[in-house]
Amino acid sequence: MSAALDLQIIDELKLIMGDDIGMLLETYFSDSVIKIQELSEIAERSHSEVTDDSDIIRRTAHSLKGSSKNVGAKNLAQLCELLETNARNNQLENLSIQVEDITQAFEVFKIEIGQLLSS
Amino acid sequence: MKILIADDNSVERLILSKVLEQEGHEVVQAETGNQAIDFFFRHSPSLVFLDILMPDIDGYEVASAITRGEQSRWVPIIFLTSLTDAYDLAKCIDCGGDDFVSKPINRIIIKAKVDAFSRIANLYETIEQQKSEIQFHNDHLIQEQEAAKKIFNNIAHRGCLAAGNINYHLSPMSIFNGDLMLAAETPMGGMRLMLADFTGHGLPAAIGAMPTSEIFYGMTKKGFVIPDVMTEMNTRLHSVLPRGVFCCVVVADIDALDERITIWNAGAPQAYIIDLESGDVEQVHSNHLPLGVQSPQRFKVNPQVFSFSKKHKLLAVTDGIIESTNEQGEMYGEERMLHFIQNNLKIDNLCSALIDQIVEFTHDAEQGDDLSLIEVAFPHHHLEQQTAADDDEVHAQTGTLDSNFSLCLRGKSLGKFDPIPLLLQTLLECRELTPHRSRIFTVLSELYNNALEHGVLGLDSEIKSGSEGFAKYYQMRTEGLVSLREGFVKVEVDHRPLKDGGEIIFEFVDSGKGFDFKKVIKSGSKHYSGRGLPLLMNLCESIEHFDDGRRIRAVYRWHAKDPEDES
Amino acid sequence: MSVGSNLSADGKVLTITINGRFDFSAHQAFRDSYEKLTPTPSEIIVDMVDTTYLDSSALGMLLLLRDHAGGDTANITLKNCNEDIRKILTISNFEQLFKI
């Protein structure tokens, strides 16, 4: 059983989007790539400094969480939520690691959803 | 429906779009707050989904911009929120939102909410439509009423309400409260007044007033007495008005020559005859069903007669006055009214003083709009002032200038039919006589009543002295007429033209016992209680008696164009 | 304001009661209480023991009732009228048309 995919949501999504589910996922992928890119950049910058960008991090994580929930990327969504909370409380010591995790989860989701839909 | 979605997250936007499109709605997508506002006013959607967190301005601001800018219709706003705190959710509604929906969206919930709002929006639209329809009809109605009021004014108010001896209060709206006030000079040298109150309000009440006023003016001008006018009115209203609509009325004839008032009250609050010197107030109560109720066969008028001279005043009101209520729910009532009259005898304008009191009593100036009352003092005898000929009379039409006609009324017909209007009309077919109408009427009327009352009925005019005497006399007259089986009065009228005018010879014969006319002429006016023979002798060129007083011949001489010479 | 009606067992006597103000708002209810009855009852009683007030539209409604019940041949009694109501009926001379 995959932890990355929320099958219930994905089934719903298939019903809603029909043939356009591919298009939706493309949108999701390109959207998420941009957001993850932003997070990575911030993580690199603030290696040494305590960052002022906690607000940006919070919002980006929040947004990514939202769309990830929508497409059933369960794991990814959870990780984003965690980052969002940390950013709100300004507990960003583990920023780089968290971003790393998110990037990975994203890749996993991409692969697994691809497999699911082609079968 | 056309639905606007504002969400900066493409994935969310896409999914929600798809859900709505599947339900058959048309979707407009906005990515930012400002774009949302712009698209809203450009596309006029019927429903809006707003994300709260957007890069430029947040959903709350968008919501207030929309509600402020859109005045003419109601557009429901549903917030998309991932917040769960009750406070935050409530804030959505506070800021002009109508509902909220949590993210990620659930297709079924979205469908349910959209349907619910769709129903409400339809309802709202229906109400708006009905509101404009109602507004339209209302405006229309008001216009019609304005027009009706004008027509009504022309018809109903041709009379002499502006006369110097009358004070009245009749607001313009009274017409549509069913109140009607009519006043006209009578050919017999006096004034007739009528205060009527139709049940109901508005147009139905006002319409009933039209035939009523036509009858009033038409018949009064021709010299018909109150019972005849009321009978005609009742017959007309009985047939014309729907069941359940009727007319309460007070009608009075003030006879300036005889110094008496004949008054009849059918269904109206009591009228008051006030003696300004002694302070006595005679209350005239209703003694008959209102007009329009009783079938013509059963209709019978019994007016009351009282003496009425310069020291008297008549006051008549509609029930709006009596029923005026103050804040405690108390009615003004008849006692207060009587009290007021007794304390204000010396006031010139009792009418406005009473209105002021009522307005004070009710603390409500608006109620003054529903009150009608009339105050009448003794009129000037208009035989002393010449009335102008009617404008629509044509000159130089001789009509009955050279004619002879006669009429004999016997037995029961004598008791039931008043021939004076008929005789007068026939004579007045001769248009040159128009300026003489009042005098001729007086002559005819006096001669006829003498023949009928003193001759056939044998009534002694001495009974008439004193106010109780009046009532008794006229009661006896009425009873006498009702039980009359035998007897007759014969009238012959002969009209001849002369070089500068003409001469009318009236001959009256009655079946009575006769009287010693020589004695009466000698003893002077006392015998005829203030009028009668002396007046006739004044108006006519000559008067002769024959057959022991049973036949009387009076000659009336008239001159064309300067009737002022006749005194 | 409410209008109640009660038909006797043999269908010959109809009693109509009026509670509260007898004015235009009672119009429909009052009519409904007698209009549809066939045959028309031979005797009708209008009980005003709980009637507080009567106005001219009520007088109109009574005339309609009388008309429906046969006009001059109608047998209608107005029962238990209080002082104010009696006064209004007297001024309008309604005792000529109804038994009071």
Structural class of chain C: alpha/beta
From the alpha carbons, calculate the radius of gyration of chain A and give it in angstroms.
15 Å
Q: Would you identify the regions of chain A where 5 or more consecutive residues have pLDDT less than 50?
A: none
Q: Helical segment tally of chain C?
A: 3
Most extensive interface, residues per chain?
A-B, 21 and 16 residues
Could you tell me the CATH topology label of chain C: Transcription Regulator spoIIAA
Oligomer: heterotrimer
Keywords (chain A): Phosphoprotein, Two-component regulatory system
Pfam families (chain A): Hpt
Protein name (chain A): Hpt domain-containing protein
InterPro entries (chain A): HPT_dom_sf, Sig_transdc_His_kin_Hpt_dom
Write a concise synopsis of the structure shown.
The complex is a heterotrimer of chains A (119), B (567) and C (100). Chain B has 567 residues and is of the alpha+beta class. Chain B is built from 16 helices and 20 strands.
Descriptive keywords:
heterotrimer; A: 119 residues; mainly alpha; 5 helices; 78% helix; C: alpha/beta; Transcription Regulator spoIIAA; 3 helices; 5 strands; globular
Plain-language structure description:
The complex is a heterotrimer of chains A (119), B (567) and C (100). Chain A has one domain (7-118): Four Helix Bundle (Hemerythrin (Met), subunit A) (Up-down Bundle). Helix content of chain A is 78%, strand content 0%. Chain A contains five helices and no strands. The longest helix of chain A has 25 residues, at 21-45. Chain A is elongated and about 45 Å long. The two termini of chain A are 16 Å apart. Residues 383-396 and 525-531 of chain B have low confidence and may be disordered. By secondary structure, chain B is α+β, with helices and mostly antiparallel strands. The radius of gyration of chain B is 39 Å and the shape is elongated. In chain B, helix 5 (107-156) packs parallel to helix 6, helix 6 runs antiparallel to helix 7 and helix 12 (420-428) packs antiparallel against helix 13. Chain B has 16 helices and 20 strands. Chain B has helices at 10-22, 33-43, 59-69, 86-94, 107-156, 202-221, 226-240, 319-322, 333-343, 350-362, 411-416, 420-428, 437-456, 467-482, 517-523, 533-539; strands at residues 2-6, 26-30, 47-51, 77-81, 99-102, 166-170, 179-186, 190-198, 247-255, 260-266, 271-275, 281-284, 304-307, 312-317, 372-377, 403-410, 488-498, 501-510, 542-546, 551-559. In chain B, strands 2-1-3-4-5 form a five-stranded parallel β-sheet, sandwiched between helices. A five-stranded antiparallel β-sheet of chain B has the order 6-15-14-11-12. The longest helix of chain B has 50 residues, at 107-156. Chain C has a single domain (2-96), classed as 2-Layer Sandwich (Transcription Regulator spoIIAA), CATH 3.30.750. Chain C has three helices and five strands; from the N terminus they run E-E-H-E-E-H-E-H. In chain C, strands 1, 2, 3, 4 and 5 form a five-stranded mixed β-sheet that branches. In chain C, a hairpin with a 5-residue loop joins strand 1 and strand 2 (13-22). The radius of gyration of chain C is 12 Å and the shape is globular. The two termini of chain C are 22 Å apart. The model of chain C has no long low-confidence stretch (mean pLDDT 84). Chain B binds chain C through residues 199-200, 243-246, 248, 266-269, 285-290, 293-295, 319, and chain C through 56-57, 59-61, 63-64, 67, 72, 90-94, 96-97. Chain A: It holds the Pfam family Hpt. Chain A: The modification Phosphohistidine is found at residue 62. Chain A: One of its GO terms (biological process) is phosphorelay signal transduction system.
